[in-house]
Every structure is written in structure tokens, then in C-alpha cells.
């Protein structure tokens, strides 16, 4: 449709803002997990940093364009610190069991699948591989959080879809880029769709077929 | 023996083919683990990608020559997808408990210790350190698979040797390169030897001495 | 105070020596964990390498200046091999339960928070972000060791402080650099302080407040 999509001037700001919001949402999920597991404030700060920054750091290491954003830009230190503080002062509480954690996790997932894909595209990765990298960015932060805290990663939870909404969002995000219509508005729409998709799948307990056909009837 | 070993023209193709086969074998082991743990098809695809691509991605990140192969070459998406499909349609089944999984894992181990070492050597890493990187490549995919799925990693299983065959294969592979005789034939022989070594060690339940002498009598 | 701090000529040697010592201490903690878990000698060597080299490799990958030290300099192979041998021949034994392991872990923590911060600063990372990287270096080796062996990571242990001494050491280390007074002597003093801080916190069972205020009374 267009020979070389010219990234809009504000794209960098757009990605930075969305990325920082995604970091915040995942960081809250980390601190809430720490509260649920009765870890101390140090464990809470640590899980906030790991869940918030883990996905983006792995993405940037794979893209291999110098020091990862999270270690180059001090702004990235703020969202995890704020998240741990909000949980500590109980301005964000767990609500009914795991529900609040999962809502924040879903918001982080929605933002990171979009920013991950766009960051990869901006670094010159092809649209198809950028989808893979977007899904990885979205999934890795929560995965590190769960593995380190010895929880079964959410991606394996049979009730609700996790990677599928991320794949959907990364695919749409990559398509918007190819079509040259990736803007604040379209980005927001994709993120809302992913967020809604994930939450509806949780509420309705959507499930995917088993790993081996007929194994789980 | 030779001043500067000239890599054969077909070396790149050789390594790509072997690497893709190794990805496939490890990917099958990931999907079989998902089936055994009654994860869904998403978890199966995820473990196929993680087990299949994890070792090579870590290797490429350490070598630090741009974007890892698995994220640069779309061919790498095929083996994990095929592996998850084969397990889903039960064209590969678990056989008696964990046996099939371990056979595919052994095949992946045999291929990756060779391709990991050669990729490192081709990137200018010294022969001794290439052995360390080869073993890491071979071991990391299965390790990530087991850690994420909360299994005890196969490397700690007291029955059968895991890292030793990989070390043996990486060492031989590095030696072949130094001697300038790394070809399709010699590579195949080393991989067969590693595969056989691993399977015989499993069947005969070979074990290594304990971490502390006399601790385990 | 000074416009551009000129790194002393011996800084490289200083960092290498301290880094190798830190690798040794963490490697011993890995082998001791293997002995306690009754893993075999292979598992012991593996955990020695993972705990000893893990933190530095992650640090070097994030700094993104070529192949990580541990894969570029064969000297790094020696400390983990020596550590596994010392544990095997029972020249280092577990003493009373986990105590010896924790002493070696504390020594590694003390050294790595300093060398991690300095390596980051030498690579041009800003003083504030270098602190984050120093803490990461100090914490990651032990974290990988515990996650892979399926232990609850020491950082989540409610009795004793882990990340706080590392943060204290990284902060001081970064300050020394900025003031231009980072030398053998000051480095040694910081490391001793971190080591003592960690051990006293363990003995006195210092604890941090819970992740959510009032949650744990």
C-alpha cells in the first residue's frame, strides 16, 4: 500500500508513554502477588521491577540495539516504585482474591503486546517476526513474576485465554504498521480490544482444546 | 595443523538444517510435556516455542551478533508449530509415560551441542569457550521448558547422564573444527554418538557420584 | 567534584580479581545447594556455573558490549570448577544445615554489587542506573540457582535482608565512583560492610515490613 511507512514524529513519545503504563500495570500485578504470598516490602519491590521491566528488557536484548530502555532511561524506575508504594499503603488492594491482580495483568498484557510489536518494527524487524517478539514481550514479564514466586504461570491456566489475546493484539498492531495507520487512536483501540478479550475470556472461562486431541474431553 | 580453518561453503546450510531439526526435537519434547501435564493447546505451542527456540536464542544473545536467528529467520517458526500440531493430532504420542519425551529431548540435545559449538566458533569464540557455549545451548532449552512447567529439570535427574553427553559432543565438535574436518559426515557421527550415549545412560541408569564425596553411598 | 573521573590504570585488574572471587563464592553456594539436595556431581558443577556466572552474564548482556566476560575469558571457568571440587572432596562442608551456604552467598553478594556497579559505570551507564544494574548482578546468580533447583529464592526469605545490603553496597560503590575515590581500599571497605550487613541481618533475623501495610502485624 505504501512503499516505506514513515513513522510519525510522535511515535517515540507514544511508545514511551504506553510502555511506562504497561510497566506500571505489570508492576502492580507483581506487588499484589507479593502481598498475597505475604512477602515483605523488599520482595514486593523486587517483583514489581521484575514483572514490570522483565518483558521489555528481554525484548530489547533480543532486538540488540544497545542498553535496554529500562536501564538507559531513569523514567522506567518510577512506575515499579509507585506500584509497590500503592500496594504497600493499600491504595490498591487485592479485592476478592486474585481478581485485581488479573485485571492489572490484563492491562499490562494489552499494552505490551502493542508496544513490543511496534518497538520491534521500529528496529527493522519484519512484520511477522515482530508479532512473535510482541507476544514474547507481553508474556515474559508475567512469566518471570510467576516462575520466580513459584506460581503456575498464568499462561498455563486452563480457565481463560492469555497468549491468544496477546497474539491477536500483536497481529493487529503489526497490520496497522504495515498499513501505515498506527496512531494514538488505533493503538488505543487495539489495546482496549485485547484488554476486553482477556477479561471476557477470564469471566466466561473460555478454554482452548487440550495439547493432545481427545486427551481432555 | 592448519593455520586458519576455512569454513566449508556449505557450513551455513549445514548448521541451519541441523539447528532447525534440533528445534523440532526440543519443540516436540515441549508439546509432549504439555500433553502429559494436561495443559491446553496454547500451553503446548508455548512450550514448543520455549523449548525449541530457548537454547538458540540464549546462545545468540551471548554471542551478541545482532538479532538471534530465531527472531530473524521466519523458518524457525515452522518446527515448533509442526511439533505442536503433531502432538495435538496424536501423530506423536507419549508412548509409555515419559519415554517418548526423553527420546526427542535426547535428539535435540545431540543436535544442539554440535550446532551451538559450531555457531560459537563461526562467530570467533575460542575453541574452549565454544564448548561451554555449546553445552549451554544444548541444556538451556530443556531447562527453560522444565523450570517454566515447574518440573525438576532433567539435568538433575540422578538416573541417566544429561550434561555429560552434551559436553562430550561439544568437545568433539570443537576438536573437529580445530582439525578442520567438520563436515556433514563427521557432524552426523558426533550427533549419533551423543544421542546413543544419552539413551544408553538412561536405559542403564548410569549415575554420577554425589555432589559431596561419600554423601551418597 | 571532578569533571570526568579518570579510571585508575589498575581498575581493570581490580574488577577482574573481585569478579573472579565473587564467582567463586556464588559457585560454592551452588555446589553446597547441590550437596544438600543430594544432586550428583554434574548437578553440582552445573549449579556452580549457573550461580557463579549467571549474574555477570546477565549484567554483560544488558550492558551490550560484546561477548560476556564469562564466555570471553577462560579464567572464569576456574572458580566454578574449583568450587565444585572443594565441595566434592568435602574441603568445604555444609556445617550446620544452610549456614555455610548463606555465608558464601553473602560474600558473593558483597562482591557482585560492587563489581556489577563499577562494570556498568565503566561502560558509560549513568550512576543511578548503574546502581540498578549492580543490584541485579548481585541478586540474579543466586536467584537462578534457587529457581532452577526449585527452592524459594533467598530474596523472599522473610528472615534477614538480602536486596537491601546489595542496594546499600551498589549505592556506596556508585558514590565512590562519582567522587573519584574508588580504589582497592574503599572497594574492600564497602564489600566488608555489605557482607557484615547481610550476616548481621541473618543472625538478628531483621525483617522488613510486609508488602501491604498492616497485612502482617
UniProtKB/TrEMBL annotation, chains A, B, C:
Membrane-related topology note: Multi-pass membrane protein
Residue stretches making up the Glycine transporter domain: 17-89, 103-176
Matches recorded under Pfam families: Gly_transporter
Top-level taxon: Bacteria
Keyword Transmembrane helix among UniProt keywords: yes
Protein family: Belongs to the UPF0126 family.
Name of this protein: Trimeric intracellular cation channel family protein
Naturally occurring in which organism (per UniProt): Citricoccus alkalitolerans
Amino acid at each position: 500500500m505504501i512503499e516505506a511507512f514513515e513513522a510519525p514524529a510522535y511515535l517515540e513519545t507514544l511508545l514511551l508513554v504506553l510502555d511506562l503504563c504497561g510497566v506500571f500495570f505489570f508492576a502492580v500485578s507483581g506487588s499484589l502477588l507479593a502481598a498475597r504470598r505475604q512477602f515483605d516490602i523488599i520482595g514486593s519491590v523486587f517483583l514489581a521491577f521484575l514483572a514490570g521491566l522483565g518483558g521489555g528488557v528481554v525484548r530489547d536484548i533480543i532486538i540488540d540495539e544497545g542498553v535496554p530502555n529500562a536501564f538507559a532511561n531513569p523514567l522506567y524506575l518510577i512506575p515499579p516504585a509507585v506500584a509497590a508504594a500503592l500496594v504497600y499503603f493499600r491504595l490498591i488492594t487485592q479485592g476478592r482474591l486474585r481478581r485485581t491482580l488479573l485485571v492489572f495483568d490484563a492491562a499490562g498484557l494489552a499494552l505490551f503486546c502493542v508496544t513490543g510489536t511496534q518497538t520491534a518494527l521500529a528496529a527493522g524487524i519484519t512484520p511477522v517476526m515482530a508479532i512473535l517478539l510482541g507476544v514474547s514481550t507481553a508474556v515474559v514479564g508475567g512469566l518471570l513474576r510467576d516462575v520466580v514466586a513459584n506460581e503456575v504461570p498464568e499462561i498455563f491456566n486452563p480457565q481463560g485465554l492469555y497468549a491468544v489475546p496477546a497474539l491477536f493484539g500483536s497481529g493487529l498492531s503489526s497490520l496497522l504498521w504495515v498499513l501505515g495507520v498506527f496512531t494514538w487512536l488505533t493503538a488505543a483501540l487495539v489495546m482496549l480490544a485485547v484488554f476486553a478479550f482477556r477479561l471476557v475470556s477470564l469471566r466466561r472461562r473460555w478454554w482452548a482444546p487440550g495439547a493432545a486431541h481427545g486427551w481432555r474431553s
